[in-house]
Write a structure and sequence with these properties.
about 20% helix, 2 domains, about 240 residues, 4-stranded antiparallel sheet, Immunoglobulin-like
């Protein structure tokens, strides 16, 4: 069959359309790799220099690759639990890779955490703050150290401390475990002649635990002793 020039033109256009359609069909056949990474619990921030435990789950055709925390370090606890410890800065970037079958790695997940330093709590003796006055009888009757931050409700526990007792020529140092003044400490305080010489209690090397069981050294503080009169009823 002999085709006219016009028919040749339409045949050329038709073949071109078929080639273009096949090219588009080939493009759609190529699929991108799909993966899903979940990091739990979902948090927007980390506390500096504290343990932050996360569970990481990877679902995909490849294998979970290396992880890095830019601005900190990651410590693997077991197959799915990781500890993120931020070291410095105002933000840390989590980058999780997946390993391809050819050994190469590609980024599967990224997230930026804001970094915050916890407010340093201050210790009080029976509710009395640093550089304040407290009665001798109150110290002997109660004598407990409690740590609390000013702007948050985090729970802190005093686990040990050292007490310096000073009054006139009397000066002694005692240490104890826990947050309660020991019996020896109270006996020593009871010997102080506050009326004549005054007296001061200085607390140092105060150790404790913060949120997450983080060990903390609290700032030292001191209180001044005053004489208290024993009050009776019916006067």
């Amino acid at each position: 069959m002999i085709l006219s020039k016009r028919n040749y033109f339409f045949l050329f256009v038709f073949l071109g359309s078929v080639i273009q359609a096949n090219a588009q069909l080939d493009t759609f056949i190529v699929k991108s790799l799909h993966s899903n990474v979940s990091v739990l619990p979902v948090k927007s921030f980390l506390f500096l220099k504290e343990d932050n435990l996360f569970k990481i789950k990877y679902v995909g055709k490849n294998k979970l690759g290396r992880m890095e925390l830019r601005g900190g370090v990651i410590d693997k606890k077991n197959d799915s639990i990781y500890n993120f410890k931020a070291q410095t800065g105002v933000s840390a970037i989590l980058v999780i890779y997946e390993k391809l079958k050819n050994g190469n790695e590609i980024i599967a997940f990224t997230y930026t955490y804001k970094l915050f330093g916890r407010e340093m709590p201050h210790v009080r003796l029976d509710g009395i703050p640093n550089d304040s006055v407290i009665g001798v009888l109150t110290v002997i009757a109660l004598g407990k150290l409690r740590a609390q931050a000013k702007y948050n409700k985090d729970i802190y526990t005093v686990t040990s401390f050292k007490l310096y007792v000073g009054s006139g020529n009397l000066f002694d140092t005692l240490s104890t475990k826990g947050n309660q003044l020991s019996l020896d400490m109270k006996r020593l305080i009871n010997k102080i002649d506050v009326k004549t010489y005054g007296g001061a209690l200085m607390f140092e090397e105060i150790k404790g635990l913060g949120p997450g069981g983080v060990e903390i050294t609290f700032p030292p503080f001191k209180v001044f002793l005053m004489e208290e009169k024993i009050r009776g009823f019916g006067f």
